[in-house]
Amino acid sequence: MTGQFLLFPQELVDEMLDHLDHVSLKTCSLVCRAWLARSRSHVFGTCSLDPTNILGFRDLLQSSGCTFIPHVRRINSYRAWENNRCFDEMVADLRRLARVHTLDIFLDFKAFDGAADALFRTGFITAFPQVTHLILGCDNVSWPAPLFDTICIFPALQELRIQEMTLDFKLTAPPVSAVPPLGLHHLQLDLLSTVPILGWLHAFNRLSGVDSLTLPLLQRRDGPAVRRLLQELGGNLYHLDIALSWSWKTFANPATVYDLSLHPNLKTLAISDYSEYPLENSDPNPMTPFITRLTTPALECFLLDLHLSMYQNMDWAALDEFFSPARLPRLRTVLCRSRGDQTFLRGALPILRASGVLWTERL
Predict the structure, then answer these.
(1) For the chain, what is the radius of gyration of the CA atoms?
(2) Is 145 helix (H, G, I), strand (E, B) or coil?
(3) 87-122 residue pLDDT tens
(4) Comparing C-alpha atoms, which of 168, 140, 134 is closest to residue 152?
(5) pLDDT of 125 over the 60 cut
(6) Domain of life here (predicted)?
(7) pTM here?
(8) d(CA 109, CA 80)
(9) pLDDT, tens digit, for every residue of 304-335?
């Protein structure tokens, strides 16, 4: 079989290699020169660095026989106290990884007393100025962090994802020199970074460049600021992913934060509902009027994640009619993920089921 495989056109061989697992790819990289590059592009496409392997990775980079450098496109890193200094000392070697476009870095703060610059503005994180996708998370923070300066290290940045930070996480104010990257358009923010990041972009007239936005479950105090900033985004937004809750007390009321009619060009809308009893104002049907404020004929995908037991009395018929193909001709997928009976969902949405766009998934 191997001999026959070698006779296939290279583009077909590449397609086959793209679907193999990691172990098989390592084997294939040893078969022949024609299979080497494609196999290595997957084997070494993502490199994970942590205190247990950083010294070995440094030695590999510095070896004269190192051949994987052109294939590395993503770095996943976890920084803690052990071997921490090595991360910063090998910056010159890491800069040889010029094709890295994604940096996923998690910082364990308990090991770094007051070392904000060492983690956020100097050393290891400066080795990849060409990065277009940045994923940043941290834990055990005890001092303000210069997050805005970190973002500015990457002038080509297009996508920013802030992972869930600890609740006592604090940011230093953005300096006047901290100008947001011009191409930044995709944001996935956590509770503590939402208002500061959106406000920063607004201050530099860069908020209009954001076309994809993922927001967390908001506290009530953040609702007014987020609403104002979303109003400015308006029709520029193509993808919106929000978490919400209709439960009272600390959570922001979705109806006072999000006005879906302000975003007429949405192509993708995802709503994750974390409501628990009681619903605010005891309204048994808050979701249908909230969703049906959509005014976008461009909608292609709608995802709704909710606890079905809380919405048995929802006006499903109105929702079914609202998402009809006649009204939304570009709609291709309606995915309802729920904790509950999927049979009920399929029966409650007959128009969508008949159109073939309805998918259900049990959580």
Answers:
(1) 24
(2) strand
(3) 888 999 999 999 999 999 988 766 555 566 677 888
(4) 134
(5) yes
(6) Eukaryota
(7) 0.87
(8) 8
(9) 998 888 888 888 999 999 998 888 999 999 99
How crowded is residue 112: how many other Cβ atoms within 10 Å of its Cβ? Answer: 20
Question: What is the pLDDT, as a whole number, of residue 172?
Answer: 78
Between the CA of residue 218 and those of 181, 192, 250, what are the distances in Å? 26, 9, 9
What would you measure as the largest C-alpha separation in the chain, in angstroms?
Answer: 71
Q: Are 279 and 306 in contact (CB under 8 A)?
A: no
Q: Which class for 225: exposed (0-12), middle (13-18), buried (19 or more C-beta within 10 A)?
A: middle
Q: How confident is the model at residue 34 (pLDDT cuts 50, 70, 90)?
A: low
Fold category of 217-363 in CATH: 3.80.10
Q: Hunting for tokens 């793209």 — which residue is that? A: 18
In whole angstroms, give the CA distance from residue 3 to residue 234.
58
Question: What distance lies between CA 183 and its chain's CA centroid?
Answer: 16
**Domain limits, the chain:** 45-210, 217-363
Contact 256, 223 (CB under 8 A): yes
CA distance 127 to 98: 9
- What pLDDT is recorded for position 154? 97
What does the pLDDT read at residue 1? 45
Residue type, 330: R
CATH of domain 45-210: 3.80.10
The confidence score (pLDDT) of residue 33 equals 64
Q: Is 288 exposed, middle or buried (CB count within 10 Å of its CB: 0-12, 13-18, 19+)?
A: middle
